[in-house]
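Input for the complex:
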Amino acid sequence: MIKVSPPLMLAALLALAFTLAIDLAPQAGGWSQGKKSGNFLGLMVGDGRKLLASQFFTMADVYFHSGYYPSVFDSNSGEQKEIISASHGRKETEEEEKGEDFLGKPKNWIDAFGRNFKITLHTHLEQGNEREILPWLRLAADLDPQKVDTYTVGAFFLRDHLNRPDQAEAFLREGLRNNPDSSEILFELGRLYHDSSHDVNRARNVWELGIKKFLQLKPDEQKENRLVYEETAINLAHLEDEEGNYARAIDWFRAGQKVSLDPGSLNVQIEKVQKKISAKQP
Amino acid sequence: MNKIIAVAGVVIKELYRRKDFYVLFVLTALLTVGAGAVNFFHDDKIIRYVKDVCLLLIWICSLVIAIVTTARQIPAEREARTIFPLLAKPVSRGQVIAGKFLGCWLATGIALLVFYFFFAVIASSREHTWPVLTYLEAAWMQWFLLAIVIALVLLGSIYFAAPSSTSTISFIVVGGILLLGGHLNNIALGQPEPMQTVLTVIYYCIPHLEWFYLSDFVVYNMTAPPWVKVLEATVYAVIWTGLFLMLAWLGFRRKNLTT
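Predicted:
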């Protein structure tokens, strides 16, 4: 064995570290760009960020219910998040609310007594307190920019409940930059232009673009996103009806009928528009 | 009683001489203020996530203080051989156990008071309300939960070899009960026999620490549970604490301190 002096060994190791650093630095830059982890949290947690984002999105729903929420051990823990259905304009009926009583009757005295120290009242945030869900949605969007629901739900609450359309638009634009083909984000953006800005032309353009994006999807994906197509088509039909373009309104209602689970309900709307057409004709 | 108070006084002095509490408090304060400083959608009225983060840190820190402080009490006395002059005072073994428990419990109580005062200042700075009763109930319940935990750790420190193993096992047990204790009966229903019976027996035999977690009421500004129920839970905590202290005393009474 050849004896090497410690300073020489140290110098050799330093030279090796320096060479490796020069070689790996440009590649490391490429890795981080490839993973789109442009933020600190994303960089820290790597691919686990999607799981965390999903958890933060659930936290937004927990906050929306002020803590009254099923755990993973309760029977209806896997149901659709209510913040999502609220953003689609669905309001719960009394029966649905009863169905969400995941606690049921107390199973024993421990369970019964323990309920004194749990939130057992089903409530939703209101009167501006909806703002409390925003931090979780912001974190979810930072961790998983591809999760479309985060943007649509956040924008809906900002626009509809907190009266802040500018921030809703900025959030949706951010979502659209990260998901340029999302028809859901385009639908929500159209609603913002139509309901808040009253800009009919922009709403129409955005919704029509949403329809175009939907039609570019694969058949399986179209099946999954049927609801957004139906909602966009019906909203476009109402818009054309308001603008006096009755023929186009009927076309959009019929387009909505093709994917609707209850196509018969749209017949009434079509008949109304047809009456307007016949009243217009001399 | 004077002897018990004297032993407890030494434990309290030890807590404020050691740096554990100060480090944990500064860490909690920094993380809470850091979380509060983040601006979400230019809205300075958002507060619940800050309260959530702060209370979570308070729970973790108070458990760390209680478990770590208690776990080293008797092993440290044995290792430094100060247990012999202490018992020669004369102080009985039962009084040592009671004094150690009282000291640790009061010390964590003082720490809790400081933590909750900080929490109230942070929360009221944005909410502009001061729901003292809810805070008091939450702190009270947490303090009595810590009484059970301290008694349990004291019992563990009699039987386990080192403070590190006592602390680790205590953290697992307490964390397990807090997270799963209330759901064990639901989990049991989905299990085949004999696991179903085993889990059901465990469900009925463990102290239900999850009752003492009132943070949700504080975070979501809900009306706190009625005081009568809180007092009933307090009696439940006293019974479990007494049971663990009794078992600790029985173990310590027969313990050979020279090995």
